[in-house]
Prior knowledge:
By secondary structure, the chain is α/β, with parallel strands linked by helices. The chain contains 9 helices and 10 strands. It has helices spanning 2-23, 90-101, 132-146, 164-172, 178-186, 230-242, 288-306, 318-327, 334-341; strands spanning 32-41, 48-56, 66-71, 104-109, 157-162, 194-198, 217-222, 247-252, 267-269, 282-284. An 8-stranded mixed beta sheet has the order 1-2-4-3-5-6-7-8, with helices on both faces. Helix 3 (132-146) crosses helix 4 (164-172).
Amino acid sequence: MKRRRAxxxxxxxxFALLVVASSGRAATAVPERVAFDSLxxxxxxxxxxxxxxxxxxxxxxxxxxxxxxxxxxCGGIYSAVKGRETLPTLRHQAMADMLADEGYVVxxxxxxxxxxxxxxxxxxxxxxxxxxxxxxxxxxGALAWLQTQADVAPDRIALLGWSHGGGTVLAAxxxxxxxxxxxxxxxxxxxxxxxxxxxxxxxxYTRPExxxxxxxxxxxxxxxxxxxxxxxxxxxGAAAAAREVELMVKVYPDSYHGFDAPGGRLQVLADxxxxxxxxxxxxxxxxxxxxxxxxxxxxxxxxAAIGQAAAGQPHRSHAAQFRLRRRRGLGExxxxxxxxxxxxxxxxxxxxx
Length: 353
């Protein structure tokens, strides 16, 4: 048993070093691999789809008993950069770091590899092998599983997602959807406390009266997004405001899809067949000011909805993170480190999808 525990510690340390090496940042959260059942079933066997997932836990002394289900975009959880294929993308790692530092358990269900797919971005919408209907059942399965965990309070679980995962957030949070309504009605357990979607597609909700969030919903999207355009989300938010429904939309000026990327540059992805101009590609680009604002809003939303670390255990500052890096032998000029934390190094080599 001691040998097994030692091996687990060695693996965890190796993972942390890999993330440091690949991202240029100190990783503050290291995941364990877990598995649980989706509410979706295999059409061939009738058995539940078994989902693999990454589970992050906060450092000792920071735990709040709050948790976040985080849903990846069409590119999947893992990096597509050669040599990093077994590591989470830098965007996912950055969010996991922040949320774990806030005291939350974070679970990333792997909707794609669990079904034999790596990514969906290059597949036309009408031919995609995995849909948001299936992923909605993954999100609900993750909620049900987290509610059995001793370190999570059943009524303090949030839902968050990006792009295809952001659209899944909307699908899973729609009280008018029969599957969601039945899930809430038949279970003696709370629903998600709040929901957050980064640049989802809102185009399916052209009749806003068919959309009522079961949990308060916040959407973050870029004004110049040509993959999942802002206008349908703005219309959905305006209709919600008129009906006094808890659905807010924050649009960031001069921002594209993937504005919260922790690095990189403006790119046109010619291999994506969908978007506003099918066949002409889509644009992704970081916007570091928008990212900082969105992250601050995410922290505020989650602190209000699922709790925050005890007094005396604040979110680790840039200076504290710099000291941690220096203790780990990752010394660099502090101004350079601050730029990296802000996502301004531009050297990640990753494309946000």
